[in-house]
Design goal:
about 190 residues, 6 helices, two-stranded antiparallel sheet, alpha/beta, five-stranded mixed β-sheet
Length: about 190
Amino acid sequence: MSSLLRVAVVCSSNQNRSMEAHNILSKRGFNVRSFGTGTHVKLPGPAPDKPNVYDFKTTYDQMYNDLLKKDKELYTQNGILHMLDRNKRIKPRPERFQNCKDQFDLILTCEERVYDQVVEDLNAREQETCQPVHVINVDIQDNHEEATLGAFLLCELCQCLQHMEDMENEIDELLQEFEEKSGRPFLHTVCFY
């Protein structure tokens, strides 16, 4: 594989886990994009049953200003403003995976439900080029600390995959090593464009 591995990182709302990985991978020189698979973007609100819900068209900047007005102290304290500030330096707004028609070599997902949605979406598309894409899931809890640990794990995985001579035949063995090392199960499947 060349260093031009086209990587997508996907979580539910394209806010925390996928953006942390996007940030770290792009700093390491990877060709990376990030996405969410949800119907809406959800951010924690004043109570667990009162999330802040946005459309995918809403920019990170608009979300930031909205939450700043709603409760500056709460959203500073829980790290959401800090996260949105980081996000808007990376790209203008969250993107929905199902609306992206670009092709990738590798799609990394951060929870099993998102993995299922990505695979379902890819399998429902009309096959055009028969280009393989590896979809790999590792569960990452949706909090700041876990997102950072998860991002480094995904980055290490990408660095190993990038140096592989024969990804098709070597990937399963590598994922097994990563499972043993990290103590997390990895899911893997191949879809075609």
